[in-house]
Amino acid sequence: MALSLQQKIQDPTQGVYLIGTTPPKMGTEKDKVTEIANKLLGRLHEIEYDGLVIYDIQDESSRTSVPRPFPFKHTVDPREYSLLLSDLSELDVITYKSVAQRGVEEFNDWLTETKEKYALNNLVLVGSPSSEGEIKLSLPNAYNALSEHQNKFFLGGVTIAERHASKRNEHERLLEKTAQGCEYFISQAVYDAQATIDLITSYARSCKQQGLTPNRIILTFTPCGSEKTLEFMQWLGISVPEATKWRILDSEQSLNESVRICRENLNLILQSCAHLDVPLGLNIESLTNRKEEIDASINLYRLLKATMELNLAEKQLAS
């Protein structure tokens, strides 16, 4: 019998391979939403993956004074798209939820509806992108509400290596989130391998000191084929070292070069963290709807999955 996504994430001997996507923009006709979902799954039919990550896109303009490179557009409810993709693909999904916009009562109603109407189990809760503006529900309070809810969920959290690079405490956030119910983490897109290595190392050492078993960290990678996409990545807070930026932009084939960089970064992370016993996973996304970048993300998935599978086989052989 095939393992569920939850079982795979919880079993460190298993590989975990995901595809990240965003729902269509709000106002898209229902038939068109189904068409978009089928088109995505059609692109993915030649690869084997364990499930899909559906993001909850929010206007993050409060986080920075820099103008957003691409205009913000509200999307259809991520739960609707999650249910549709799950039904069409017959695979498990992970659904993101931004919690800051509603109070605790509304959030509780949302949780009930998520389980009873949409039959969704795997959640990643996301807090406010900024301390500015009105925050109706903090992330810790959302975790608390979920822990007391009558329905149970398989809860994940977001981890951002760039925060660790600047504040040196992201590993402590992971421990706090674990205590609040998180059983896995999904990273922001990786372009700075050293920041990720430092985070995983700090997390592994803290877990060892406290006698804890590390949760799985699912590493996100995305291709980058243009200066505009690069601007968007940096606007989102993704750290791109200067040399990496020019290596992409000065290349005659920027997309292919970004794929090579992602593979090098994953190899470096795997080599540097092999002794730490932190189970890792893979999540591949495309940050734009450009066909070239979507196709490149599928090629990137193939390449990085093969890299991860080889690493996992070597670890199992060594043990």
Automatic annotation (TrEMBL):
Q: Which domain of life is it from?
A: Bacteria
* Keywords associated with the record: Oxidoreductase
Q: InterPro entries from the entry? A: FAD-linked_oxidoreductase-like
Query: What protein name is recorded for this chain?
Result: Methylenetetrahydrofolate reductase (NAD(P)H)
**Which organism is the protein's source?**
Pseudoalteromonas spongiae
